[in-house]
Structure formats: C-alpha cells, structure tokens
Specification:
Pfam families: Phage_integrase. With 423 residues, the chain is of the alpha+beta class. It is 43% helix and 10% strand. Helix 2 runs antiparallel to helix 3 and helix 3 packs across helix 5.
C-alpha cells in the first residue's frame, strides 16, 4: 500500500495518523494503518480540540470530510461528542477511565509521565473510578457523556454512596483516588476543566489502635498451628479449605523478627545476608516500596540480625545454605510469591482465631510489634531501620556510616518481647 502524504499547502488541521502507534505524523512504516485525521481548535479555549479520524484515504476526499466535520461543529456550537480514545483531549466517561488505566499501567506515550505502582494499587484506584462510573450510570449514558460534563450533583451522588459503603478512612482514600483520576485528566491529558472533586468534606478518622502482639499471644498462635484444625469453612456451601502449610511457623517468626513487609520477607534469600567489618550480620534488601514511589532503582533497607533472628536462621539451615541464592522460606517453591504471601496472611488469622485470641490482630501486626520493640532501643534512629525517614541513594554494596552504626547497634541490642524472648 502507498504511504499517505500531505501536500505542501495542506488544509489546516489535517494530519496523518497511525492507528498502530497511535501518533500523529508518524515516522514508522505501518503504512497500511495510516489514515488522515483532522483536529479542530475550539474557539475561546487554549488547548481544547475536537478530532476525527477521516475515512477516505484520498487526500482531496479527506479534505471534504474535514470541512464537513468543522461545519457540523460550528452548527452544534462545538458540543458534538467526538470520542477518539486514541488521541485528543475530549473523552467520554468510559474512555477516560480506560485512558487512566493505561496511564497507571505505565503505558503513557510520554516517558516522563510513566507511572510505576503496584498492580494491587492500580486495581484499587480503577475500582474506585468504576464505582464512581456506576453511580453516574444511574442518570447518564456513560458512553456518550463527556467527562467535562461531570457535575457537582454527580459528585454529591457518589459522595453519598461512598458514605454508605466505607469506613471514614477508606472513604477518604476512595474520594482522593477519584480526585487523582481527574487530576490526571487535567494535568496529563490537558483537558480544560475544573476538578469536580477538588473540594469535599473529608471524614474525621479516629486515632487507630496500634495492635501489637504479646509473647503469650504469639506463642499461642504457633501452638495452634500444631493443634488446631487446619480446615476453614468457606462461604455458605460448606466448602472446606486446608489452611496448613509447612512453612507457616517459620514464616510467622521471620515476620516478627525482621519487621519486614510481605513481599520482602517471602522473597528473602540467603545471599541477602551481609557481614560488617565488625562482624555484625544483617540483611540488605531492595526497598521496593520506596523505589516504586520515587521511580528510582538502587534503594536498600537493612535489617539487623540479632541473636533471636540468627538462632532461627540456624534452625532453617544457615550453616549449609549461607551465601546461596536459595529462598530462605520455602526454597523448593512451585508457587508464586504472591500465593505464599496470601497463604501466610489468611493462615495467621485462621490460627489466631484457633488460639482463641479475640483481639483484632493480623499478620501486619507482627511488623507493628517489631517496630514497637525496636523503638524502645533505637528511639529517634528507628526510622533508619524501618525506612520511615528520608533515605539517600546508596552506592551498591556500601552502607551509609550512620545507617551501619544503627544496624550494628540494633543487631546487638534489639530483643523482641524483651530479654526473655525465646520463641
């Protein structure tokens, strides 16, 4: 197929568009995917345009299409909805969410705008947007309604819906999530509109209880793994699921004695253990959460290996496996890390209930317990171990001297549950 071309004195607003690359005036060789396209500026605005991919591959005929399109826009006072989900800044409600999902997935055509967030966070943000669209659908056609036509009443309807479905903390997260969706449309897609969610009353969130785990509670949970029925009844059909896994007790102890997040602990390897000049052992692992939030590689966190943690590692095979690339937890795994994470979370709750513990604690509570006991020793330096302070980008295999001294102090002095903390 011949490549489409534009004459030297082309009709104003006409461009060549590649449906494969989704760009105007392409430099690719997808000639069979080329079309003529027209973009018409909306008078009285700075950036707003109406665009249309033209049907004809013959330039003279495409010009006639463009003229008729512009004439129609003038007759309708530029209110005609032209949904072009591949280019432009005038989307329907549905296409706006699709565009946002692509952006969150890192599919932005502009390198400087590419997002780097977890898939779980992306799904959560899109879920909030879908709930908003669902409330819109009761009164509007979401496939033809322009996103700039979202009204204050639409926001009010969603606000009421969210009030009835979420706790104050999740409510605030939901509203802020949809506000971020409109920020994307305004800041990244350059749609000329005011953010309809820019002002709303946030819910007052009471100070949350920091539910830590006592030594007695933790011991009871470990005992329940051996003595309590592993079967949990699911739903209303009486289906039973076996919650027992051979790695549960070691996994729970690793969580308690390292204070790490799920993805950090499940993917710990023996080769992550380093030894300082003074002989103090510690884990050096990627700080995935901070790396993602800053879109930077090369950020690390350091977990001191105190005597309790070292005793556990010896039980798990330290002498034979040190410096190997094997995972510490379930080295011969045939399942994904996410499966192990979910199993640990759900099984902890199952055996917590089996131990007769009524307190609202979960696997996350082990991290809170670790940080609480670390704070007793480290005080203001706690953040250097838990990554809650501002971090520097560290050179590979080197540690900031300030952090090193804190790691060494922690390895020597930290005792979870105090001096008598054998588990």
């Amino acid at each position: 197929m011949n490549k489409l071309v534009l004459p030297k004195n082309k009709y104003k607003g006409i461009k060549i568009y590649c449906k494969e690359c989704k760009v105007d005036n392409p430099k690719c060789k997808h000639f069979e995917r080329f079309s003529y396209k027209v973009r018409v500026h909306v008078p009285g605005t700075q950036r707003s345009v109406k665009s249309k991919i033209l049907k004809s591959k013959v330039y003279s005929e495409a010009v006639i299409e463009a003229i008729n399109f512009e004439k129609h826009l003038k007759e309708t006072n530029y209110q005609t909805i032209v949904v072009d989900s591949t280019q432009g800044n005038d989307y329907s409600v549905v296409d706006s969410v699709i565009k946002y999902n692509h952006y969150l997935n890192g599919d932005s055509e502009y390198a400087q705008f590419k997002k780097n967030i977890t898939d779980e966070h992306r799904k959560e943000l899109i879920r909030f947007c879908k709930y908003f669209v669902k409330t819109l659908k009761k009164n509007k056609n979401i496939e033809t309604t322009r996103i700039i036509d979202v009204s204050r009443q639409d926001v009010s309807n969603f606000y009421t819906w969210a009030e009835n479905h979420y706790s104050p903390k999740t409510f605030n997260k939901c509203m802020n999530g949809v506000k971020g969706f409109f920020d994307f449309l305004i800041d990244i897609e350059e749609i000329e509109m005011k953010n309809p969610f820019r002002k709303y009353s946030r819910k007052q969130v009471g100070k949350s209880n920091i539910d830590t785990v006592t030594r007695e509670e933790f011991s009871a949970i470990l005992k329940a793994v051996d003595t309590y029925s592993p079967f949990m009844v699911l739903g209303g059909r009486g289906e039973r699921k076996n919650m027992f896994k051979s790695y549960l007790k070691d996994g729970f102890r690793l969580f308690l004695l390292t204070g790490g997040r799920r993805e950090e602990i499940v993917d710990l390897r023996w080769s992550d253990i380093y030894v300082s000049v003074s002989g103090v052992k510690f884990f050096r692992i990627q700080n995935l959460k901070v790396e993602r939030s800053r879109n930077i590689d090369g950020l690390y966190k350091y977990i001191p290996i105190n005597s309790d943690l070292f005793d556990l590692l010896v039980e798990m095979g330290y002498d034979e496996k040190k410096q190997s690339e094997n995972y510490i937890l379930l080295p011969d795994r045939k399942v994904q890390s996410k499966t192990i994470m979910d199993a640990l979370s759900k099984s902890f709750t199952h055996y917590k209930n089996g131990a007769g513990i009524k307190k609202d604690i979960s696997l996350k509570s082990l991290r809170k317990t670790y940080i609480s006991w670390v704070h007793q020793v480290m005080q203001k330096e706690t953040g250097l171990l838990t990554s809650h302070s501002t971090e520097k980008v560290l050179e590979s295999y080197y540690i900031d001297p300030q952090i090193l001294s804190v790691v060494e102090k922690g390895a020597i002095e930290i005792k979870i549950f105090g001096n008598d903390s054998s588990l």
